[in-house]
Structure formats: structure tokens, C-alpha cells
Amino acid sequence: MVRKWKIIWSFMLILLIGLGIYSNVSEDETKASEKQVITIADGGWDSMQVHNYIAAFIIENGYDYPVTFINGSSIATFTGLRTGEIDVYMELWYNNMEKPYLEAVAAGEVVQLSTNLVTDDQGFYVPTYVIEGDPENGIEPMAPDLVTVDDLKKYPELFQDPEDPSKGVIIGAPSGTVIHDVLERKVKTYGLSESYNYFTPGSAGAVTASIARAFMNYEPWVGYQWSPTWAMAKYDMTLLEEPPFDEAIYNENFGTEFPENPALIAANVSFPERAPEIAEFLSNYETSSVITGEALLYMEENDATPKEAALWFLENYEEIWTEWLPEDIAEKVKAALAL
């Protein structure tokens, strides 16, 4: 009878193995297979995409989580962050998204994990040769008295709109971004709409392409820029002065300089509990405008993708990103980079 039950149990064990119910898969492999995909917002601009790929490489190779990106405008992707369709936002510009961000935090939908970087130099720029000329290349100053945004009223003919020669043109930000509406309001607040058209470019790439073209031909150009961008890292640009920042005035009509603008790393409120080790990693994630600008310049000068720029960062700034991680995770990431 005992022998009979041994035979039965042996048969059942073989059957379980055959069905995959009993497995020799390791505990780590089982846990990895159970890890849910982490979704990261992709707002479409280069610096955000570089940080997305840096984070994704570390998450996939250091923590064994799969990662995917969800594309869309700033508003659309932030809505996804609030609802949980998106887990992480790697570059959420606070001042550009202040109202919806604070609403989401107050509603218990979104949490801040870290401050990725901070910029205090966004605004209306012109190439420095427009003001100072470029003696080495025989370029005379085109607008020597151009110091402030208000001074643009003296030079609409210099920045002539090819589509409407009766006015100048100020290059703004792509539609679908919060900063687009801010800039459009600024142009009206400063009384520039009487002599300038506000142009909405199709993409951030179109803006930097127009800057590159202007520098190649020493042409006048005026428009919105910020750091980090590869154009700001490469070209000599001058920020036009605006009235000193005043919160009340700025909130009323944006009629002052921009305040200091942090780029936050934010997550859906459920994310830290679902993936605490990734939330911990992202809470340590911190770069700078200068470093990010260098990665973007690498993209431009080497015709590289954001993914390739992320790998360049990981290979060249090991002393920075290893500080974000436990030693064993950092070693796994290093091993993946060496492949």
C-alpha cells in the first residue's frame, strides 16, 4: 500500500512539473517576472527624453523592471500621471505646470520624488551678435541699444516676419505646452503685439533649427529659450531683461521676469508603494542644467538620439549616477553598460 502511494505521488509530481506548476525557477526570476511595467511620460522635448532613457536604463538593468514611455503633450501626459496611466514624470517644470500640479498634489493624486534640475534663465533671447556684433567675422551690431524686452519696440523691422513684413516676429513655444500660453500673454502684456506677431512653432526641434540657421547666416532672431537645450549650450545668446520678478504681478499678467524654475521628478501617488525601490532611486536622482545641456549638445554634434545621449551620460558621469544607487545595483548597471 505504501509503495502504491509512493508511485501515485511520484506520478503527480511528474505531472506538476510537466504542467509548469512546480518549477525550478529561482525566487529572483519569479519576482522579476511578476514586476509590472513602469510607465514614464514623454512630453516630446529632448532633455526630458534624455532623462527618460537614463532612468529607464537603470530601472531595466539595475532593478529588472520593464519600462515603457507614453507620448503626449504636457497637459495630456500630466493628466495620465494623475489618473495612474503614467507612473513617473522625469522633468515636470514646476512654474509651467504649477496650477495643475498643486491641484494634483492637494487631491492626493501625485507626489514629488526629487528635483531633477533648476533653471533661472528662461525668457526672450537674441543672438549676442545682434547687440554686440562679431568683429572677427565682420559683423556690425544690429541693435546696439537692445537691452530689455521693451526695447524690442524699437526694432520690429530688424526681426521682420517673412509672412507679414509689416510686423516683427517673436518665436514662441509649441502649442500644447503651458509655456506657450504664458509667452503669448507676455507679448500682449508688454505691448509687443502691436508691432510683433507671436509665432507658434511646430516643435521644440523647429525652434532650435531656426536658431542654428540664424547663427549660420548671422541673421537676427528673437524668441523664447531656456536651459537646458543644446542651442543654449552651443551658442552665445543674450537674455533680454524684464522687470524684476514680482509674484503678484506675475500671477496677474506674467509682466515680470520668470521666477526660478525647478524641474521636478513626480510620480502617481500609488507608485512608491508599488515599486518602493524605484521610488527611492528616483528620490536620489539629481542633475543640473549644465550637465543636461552637455548631453543635448552631444546629441546635436554627433547626430545622436536621446537614448544614445543617455548612454553617453552614463558612461561619462559615473561619479554622479552611482551616488543615486545602492552599490549592488550600480554594479549591475555598470555591467550592462560594458556589454
What can you see in these coordinates?
This is ABC transporter substrate-binding protein. The structure is a single chain. By secondary structure, this protein is α+β, with helices and mostly antiparallel strands. The chain has two domains: 36-120 and 261-338, D-Maltodextrin-Binding Protein, domain 2; 123-253, 3-Layer(aba) Sandwich (D-Maltodextrin-Binding Protein, domain 2). Helices cover 47% and strands 17% of the residues. It has helices spanning 2-19, 27-34, 46-62, 74-83, 98-106, 128-132, 178-189, 204-217, 230-234, 247-253, 271-274, 276-284, 289-301, 306-316, 318-321, 327-338, and strands at 38-42, 67-71, 88-93, 110-119, 123-127, 160-161, 164-171, 196-199, 223-225, 237-239, 261-268. Strands 3-11-4 form a three-stranded antiparallel sheet, sandwiched between helices. β6 (160-161) and β7 form a beta hairpin. The relative contact order is 0.16.
